[in-house]
Amino acid sequence: MSHSPDQLRSQIASLIREYHATAFAPQKFIPGQTPLPVTGKVFDHVEIQHLVEASLDFWLTTGRFAARFERELADFIGTRAALLVNSGSSANLVALSALTSPKLGDRALRPGDEVITVAAGFPTTVNPILQNGLVPVFVDVKLPTYDIDVDRMREALSPKTRAIMIAHTLGNPFDLGAVVDFAQKHHLWLVEDCCDALGATYQGRNIGTFGHIGSVSFYPAHHITMGEGGAVLINDPALKKIAESFRDWGRDCWCEPGRDNTCGRRFGWQFGGLPEGYDHKYTYSHIGYNLKATDMQAAVGVAQLQKLPDFIAARQKNFQHLYNSLSDLSEFLLLPEPTPGAVPSWFGFCLGLRDSAPFSRRELIGFLESRKIATRLLFGGNLTRQPAYQNQPHRICGPLTRTDWVMERVFWIGIYPGLTPEMLDYSSACLHEFIRSKTR
Q1: What is the C-alpha to C-alpha distance for residues 180 and 210, in angstroms, rounded to an integer?
Q2: φ, ψ for residue 138 (rounded to 5)?
Q3: What's the CA gap between 141 and 144, in Å, rounded?
Q4: CA–CA separation, 314 vs 319, rounded Å?
Q5: Helices 45-57 and 5-23: angle between axes, nearest 10 degrees
Q6: How large is the average pLDDT for residues 249-266?
Q7: 10 Å Cβ neighbour count for 385?
């Protein structure tokens, strides 16, 4: 008996539900034996069904799922457009590169221009600055919000300053009120790195809507995942076209893959030194890349995006659970706080060892790791001390005292939605056990 492709797809989808229930059945948590990761993907049969459906389409580049994901992500965030790319790092690269486009005229960033950022961060917030021949200007952060010190930001301004590019650290928005005012006053571009903070809000408005352009990551560690993936968030249609060009080989054409003549003038343009009527599909206006994601990745993202509100709520609930259970240790541990006016979409729970703590960070994280509780440092610590940046052009404005403190005394543990209250209580109990042993 033969079956139609639609009937076979239905059978496959049914089997996937059964497969997921068996292959990914919940495991009992055993304190001290079951690893507690800092992050992880949370999914069910729907993500696998989407992935297989896209595979059965065998449309191996961006397609219907990518278009749907871009549309639904933009609707969720509140931007006019979201451009899917292959990673959050690529999103940062596309976002900043777009601001170097000659199409922006006098506003275009040029080699030697300065971009204000923080030293306590992740490399791929800073790398696009250097990769475009620009100069990062590093400033300190505030504690315990870990966001940019706006006083140092103001002091960092110079005649060469043309942009600000900073991340919302561990899901906590930076002081968008002060930063946006500063950017507007001095006619600076603002790039929001939202890779660790999808769904966070500031004064009731989603992050990613404040800057001229922003970025999101869908690596498995982040709020939603498609394995590898990211997106560029944009409101300005002209900037969207430029960003698309940088993502798609630098071409001037904006046709979707597999389509021709969207503009209606495929052989009716004249650019640069090309002959009049040269095929617009092979006309290049930027030194670009190919940073597209596949439709199979986007299919997973479509399913994950439906779960995002619940994921955000779980992260906030888990954060509060840990905060309440660790508040009695504040004599020794600096607990994280949200930026005033912000509702974070927490990525992790940051802990700083106060100067009076009678133990080292290395001792504490060694103890936690021995109890199967994973830990992470706050990314690169002080990036100016990392080997990669030692001989790169940069400027430092003011002392990086708190950034050095972060480098030496801060780490974070997990609060992602896959962690249960029982797991969080175990993390808290181990922290209490260690500190009691050191303070008797």
Answers
A1: 7
A2: -90, 135
A3: 9
A4: 8
A5: 140
A6: 82
A7: 14
Calpha distance 436→440 (Å, rounded): 6
Q: How many CB atoms are closer than 10 A to CB 430?
A: 21
Report the SS3 class of residue 120.
strand
Q: How far is 224 from 350, CA to CA, in rounded Å?
A: 20
**What are 258-303's pLDDT values in tens digits?**
778 788 789 888 888 888 988 888 889 999 999 999 999 999 999 9
Residue 176 Cα distances to 137, 142, 402, angstroms: 19, 14, 20
What is the Cα–Cα distance from 87 to 218, expressed in whole angstroms? Answer: 7
Asked if 179 contacts 166 with a C-beta cutoff of 8 angstroms, the reply is yes
Which residues is 351 bridged to in the sheet? 411
- The residue whose two tokens read 């990036």 is 383
- Give this prediction's pTM: 0.95
Radius of gyration of the chain measured on its C-alpha atoms: 23
Q: Are strands 161-167 and 114-118 parallel, antiparallel or unpaired?
A: parallel
Going by the DSSP 8-state scheme, the letter that residue 389 receives in this structure is G
Residue 119, CA atoms < 13 Å, CB-side half-sphere: 32
User: Where does residue 19 rank: exposed (0-12), middle (13-18), buried (19+ CB within 10 A)?
Assistant: middle
So what's the pLDDT on residue 318?
98
Tokens representing residue 145 in the block = 């919000």
H-type helices in 86-216, by residue range? 88-98, 123-131, 150-155, 176-185
Rounded-to-10 torsion of CA 114, 116, 117, 119: 80
Instruction: DSSP letter for 171, please.
Output: G
Query: What is the percent of the chain with per-residue pLDDT over 90, rounded to a whole number?
Result: 91
Between CA 417 and CA 425, with CA 422 as vertex, the angle to 5 degrees is 100
C-beta of residue 411 within 8 angstroms of C-beta of residue 351: yes
DSSP H helices in 280-420: 295-326, 361-370, 401-409
Residues in CB range of 315: below 8 A, 6 or more apart: 171, 223, 345, 346, 347, 415, 416, 417
- The one-letter code for the residue type at 355 is D
**How many residues does this entry show for the chain?**
440
pLDDT tens across 147-183, in order?
999 999 999 999 999 999 999 999 999 999 999 999 9
DSSP 358: S
What is the number of alpha carbons within 13 Å of residue 100 lying toward its C-beta?
24
Q: What residues act catalytically?
A: 222
CA-angle at 131, arms to 156 and 380, nearest 5°: 65
Inform me whether the pLDDT recorded for 2 exceeds 80: no
> Does position 1 have pLDDT exceeding 70, yes or no?
no
Mean pLDDT of the chain: 96
